[in-house]
Design a protein that fits this description.
Low-confidence stretches of chain A: 117-123
Mean pLDDT of chain B: 81
Low-confidence stretches of chain B: 417-434
Largest sheet of chain B: none
Helix content of chain B: over 70%
Radius of gyration of chain B: 27 Å
Helix content of chain A: 40-55%
Largest interface: A-B, 18 and 23 residues
Mean pLDDT of chain A: 82
Number of strands of chain A: 3
Oligomer: heterodimer
Order of helices and strands of chain B: HHHHHHHHHHHHHHH
Largest sheet of chain A: 3 strands, antiparallel
Strand content of chain B: under 5%
Chain lengths: 123, 434
């Protein structure tokens, strides 16, 4: 883990979820929002203000960049702005995921991890 | 895509809400935010109809409320126009709100006074001590005196001047721990306090005028305003001396023997105390005008805001009908000073227009003051036999105020225009790296 990655930890939930959303390819704002909603099972629903406020800070921190490429313009609104992870962003999201995974392992060892079964309730 | 009127209405409303974000954030992300919100609206309406849209709006209003504040606080231009005036641009509304606060305090207390509540006088004598605290805090924190602090500074100056007046007169409750000691010391050195005060005033005026002369900023019109100010300022003491001399049949020696030698110096000292203080403040403002331009006019405005147009109404001494004229006059006067002038001047971009607005607002306030004084005299005595002292009372203080305002406008106009390459805002304005 690089020293620069550690300096970004811990990430805020909004930043982490946006980085995760972009991990599998560039997306525009609404797609990021829907991806975050899906990741969290509908528990985190960002508004445009939160989304773009966070994107602004992530752009300033060079975690993401605006992508110059666009999908087929016939399929998409050209006003949408697409974002993708930078190399730094990829390192940071990996480092944060490792940190969280480590915490989950410890929680399992200490038998404090409660697994949600969705609509089925707690285990 | 088929247009949905609920979605379109929501889009228009959200476009309006985007105005609450800082301009730079809005310019960069406004379109994207609107696009995302539109997508959310279509999705919400498609899933749950109008209820989905309403639930979305509840979340959106919270989102806008929180994030707009965050963006304003964290914006690189968060302090734009808050600490210093921006050349050629009006103060942003957040700055105007800060300018307005001291005046609002006095306006509300004035309404209370007209309803018979006396805490207006507590506000008049003490509010400046509290209103200056956030100004000093920001000054300590940012190492820059904020432009919106000029009004509280003018108020504090007036309050301290009034305190010094009452301390020297001994017109304060001696049981107060700190002020009681101050009054005792003042009385012990009474023979020194007045000359020291006069010397301090003359010294201050000398150095300030000397500085202005060296910078060649005293033109003929400025000297005319100074002369007019002196004329109206000296009017009351001179008339008092003339009145005494007349009673002694113009025998100066008899008058001095009868009134005592100190009476003549006292009548000028007490009669000119506040006018001299106001004059000194206007001259001090020339230094502030170099930094804040015409917004330095907030300093004399802050001095004038605590002016009491009419004291306690007393049915034993005043006509009942008088109150029906006084209430609107006092409210108009107070509104001009506390609300209209600060907001209009702050929101005017051009410096010459700021001075014009200030002149109009304060001129109107002075007119109301003259009218009010005239009404009080008209209801309380026979207009056909108004004595000279009565006419002096009607016009003297308003004319001193008017000439003081004219002097401030003339002086601050002559200051170098706001050219400070080293300021942060000048660099931002011209796209230079900060």
């Amino acid at each position: 883990m690089k020293k620069q990655d550690i300096s970004y930890q811990p990430l805020t939930p909004a930043v982490y979820h946006i980085l995760l959303a972009l991990a599998d390819g560039e997306k525009h704002g609404y797609a990021i929002m829907k991806d975050v909603e899906m990741q969290t099972g509908g528990r985190v629903k960002m508004g445009p203000g939160t989304l773009y406020g966070t994107i602004k800070r992530m752009l300033a921190a060079s975690l993401i960049v605006e992508s110059a490429r666009r999908p087929d313009p016939e399929l998409d609104d050209e006003r949408r702005r697409y974002y993708r992870l930078t190399a730094l962003g990829q390192h940071v999201v990996s480092a944060e995921s490792e940190r969280l995974a480590m915490a989950v392992n410890i929680a399992r060892q200490k038998r404090v991890l409660i697994q949600y079964l969705g609509a089925g309730g707690l285990q | 895509m088929k247009r949905n009127r609920w979605v379109e209405t929501s889009r228009r409303m959200y476009t309006f809400l985007l105005r609450f974000y800082p301009e730079d954030h809005r310019n960069e992300f406004g379109d994207s935010m609107l696009q995302v919100f539109t997508d959310q609206c279509r999705s919400a309406y498609g899933e749950r109809g109008i209820w989905g849209l309403l639930i979305l709006w509840l979340r959106t209003l919270l989102d806008v409320g929180v994030t707009s504040v965050v963006e304003h606080i964290t914006s690189p231009r968060a302090g734009w126009g808050l600490l210093e005036a921006v050349p050629g641009a009006p103060l942003p509304w957040k700055g105007v709100m800060l300018v307005l606060i001291p005046g609002l305090v006095f306006f509300v207390s004035q309404i209370a006074q007209l309803r018979g509540e006396d805490w207006f006088f507590w506000v008049m004598y003490r509010a400046a001590y509290f209103l200056i605290l956030p100004v000093l805090l920001v000054w300590w924190w940012k190492r820059t005196f904020p432009v919106w602090g000029l009004i509280p500074l003018g108020m504090l100056y007036k309050t301290l001047l009034y305190l010094a007046y009452r301390v020297q007169l001994g017109a304060i409750n001696m049981e107060r721990p700190f002020l009681g000691v101050v009054i005792s010391v003042s009385k012990s050195y009474a023979s020194i306090v007045k000359p020291v005060t006069v010397l301090a005033f003359l010294g201050g005026v000398y150095f300030l005028l000397k500085g202005l002369l060296q910078r060649r900023h005293l033109q003929r019109t400025t000297w005319m305003w100074i002369a007019a100010y002196a004329l109206f300022g000296f009017m009351q003491p001179l008339l008092s001396v003339v009145g005494v001399l007349r009673s002694y049949e113009w025998d100066w020696n008899e008058a001095v023997m009868g009134m005592g030698p100190t009476w003549f110096s006292n009548v000028f000292y007490w009669g000119m105390f506040f006018y001299a203080g106001f004059f000194l403040l206007i001259l001090l403002g020339t230094w502030l005008a170099r930094r804040y331009g015409s917004l330095a006019l907030f300093l004399p405005l802050g001095y004038l805001i605590p002016t009491v147009l009419f004291g306690r109404y007393d049915e034993a001494y005043h006509s009942v009908a008088l109150i029906y004229w006084l209430i609107p006059a006092v409210l108009i006067y107070r509104a001009l000073l506390t609300l209209a002038a600060p907001v209009w001047v702050a929101r005017t971009a051009d410096e010459s227009a700021q001075r014009r607005v200030f002149a109009v607002m304060l001129g109107a306030a002075v007119g109301v003051q003259i009218l009010t004084n005239f009404l009080v005299l008209a209801f309380d005595c026979n207009l056909l036999v108004i004595p000279l002292e009565g006419l002096t009372w009607i016009f003297q203080e308003p004319m001193v105020t008017a000439t003081g305002i004219g002097l401030a406008l003339a002086l601050y106009r002559q200051q170098p225009s706001l050219q400070q390459p080293e300021t942060h805002y000048h660099a931002l304005l011209h796209g230079e790296e900060v």
